[in-house]
Fold this sequence. Notes:
Blueprint: H1 3-12, H2 21-28, E1 32-37, E2 41-43, E3 51-57, E4 60-66, E5 69-76, E6 80-82, E7 96-99, E8 103-110, H3 111-120, H4 122-148, H5 151-166, E9 168-170, E10 173-177, H6 182-189, H7 193-205, E11 209-211, E12 215-218
Antiparallel strand pairs: 1-8, 2-7, 3-6, 3-8, 4-5, 4-7, 9-10, 10-12, 11-12
Amino acid sequence: MDTKTTLPILEHSPLFAVLTYEERLLLHQTATIQTYAKHQVIYKPGQTATKVYFLLKGLIKVTVHAEKKDIIKYVVRPDSLFGESCLTGDNQRRDFAYVMDEFAEVLELDVAAVLNVMRRNFAFAQSLLHFLGARLRYTETQLEKVVLKDSKSRILEFLQQMGHEQGKRVGFETLVKHNMTHQDIADLTGTSRQMVTAVLNQLKRSNILYFNRKKILFRDLNALPLAV
């Protein structure tokens, strides 16, 4: 890989900003940038875990199979790691990583090189620990929602979070462009596709939002909690 291409990528992210130039070169020596097509599998259970992935472009969903269906653990957005469990001792993959967008561009880092740099640079190791902790808290929060909240509340909370995190203001409205199916939203909220469709249709009839396959337009994002 061209160093001129690699180093700005590593410098851009706060996760890698704590590294010295020499430490970035260590990661560069075994790093590659790969492009994947929509629905392509990046890794799957049983494969040897030798790489940590940093998403540059696109969307990735990390899933497990249960009862003949995918259960989405989380969705990866640009400037974030995935496949990081090998840093904590997992030698084999236990989940799937699929491309959700039309394509994805991924920086692939050798796990041995990452561990070597972690040993050299405590600040980098601490950054990775904070990242792993945040992902664990997200998983715990999702589990708590499934236990403590009903289906409609979980869907509405997910839509509101999507609006705040991904939305762009268009006058008084909020536009979210996405590639999620109703089934994807159902998997992320622990509900059914039929329930997601029913809630979206109810919100559309109430003129709280408009949606199609590629976008959701929130008329008033703050009105969502009152819509159950």
